[in-house]
Amino acid sequence: MCAQITADLHLHTTASDGQLTIDRLPAAATKADVEWIAVTDHDLIHPELTAPVTVHDGVNIIRGIELRVQTDTQRLDLLGYGVDQTNDLNAELDRLQANRINRAQEIIDRVESHVGVDIDLDPHSGVGRPHIARAIDDSEASYDYKQAFTELIGHDRLCYVPREITSVDDGIALLRDACRIIGLAHPLRYDDPEAALELTTELDAVERYYPYGREVDTTPVDRAIERHNLLVTGGSDAHDEALGKAGLSQSQFDEFYAQFEA
Predict the structure, then answer these.
(1) All structural domains of the chain
(2) Dihedral angle at the C-alpha atoms of 241, 68, 221, 247, nearest 10 degrees?
(3) For residue range 173-226, what is the model confidence (pLDDT) as tens digits?
(4) Which of 111, 117, 150, 161 is deepest in the core (most CB within 10 A)?
(5) Predicted TM-score (pTM) of this structure
């Protein structure tokens, strides 16, 4: 972990599966003593962020995106920073969001059929399994949030439905045209971190600082940073209101932002 955190470059809002709205982000950032944040919602560009960088109540917000991509062997997450609207990216995001809505409805239908109760959730843009799990927890079904995943909607569970994923080559190409910086998210979370880190030969950055919730050996990440001259990023991946659990120091962010503005 770095020292005093200036920038938290990975968080989610209610536009996808987070709990913060844009209006509430400044207070959360101020509480965490963070000056810069990046909104990186899943497979969408937050509609309330009108430029690659905006200032809200004294907090600087970078418009970003977290895009899941499929390689030959595993699924990875890419973080795009300073994202602009392009026709090709918007078309792909529209396709992914339509699939998310249809998939969520199919999961809900399966859950309702299996447990015999109504699930009060109207699928919307940005919907994901956390929304469904919370709705199951709030329903009359005898499953809490965690049990909803482990017994119903987790991977390979009875009510699970896979969703469409962008191919890695298409994802990189789309983000390269739209973003100022592209990085690999949480490289040590994947089944094969070494293979994931090989992808950084085509990227600008890697998420060096991340709250894995366990001891991790960051040596492979550090080797990739040195070998491929990567920018360092970091963030809390906050889905709640607690920012600043990981991120960049002032000097690290200065290096990131110099490339961001280049």
Answers:
(1) 7-84+179-261 (3.20.20.140), 92-153 (no CATH)
(2) -20
(3) 999 999 999 999 999 999 999 999 999 999 999 999 999 999 999 999 999 999
(4) 111
(5) 0.93
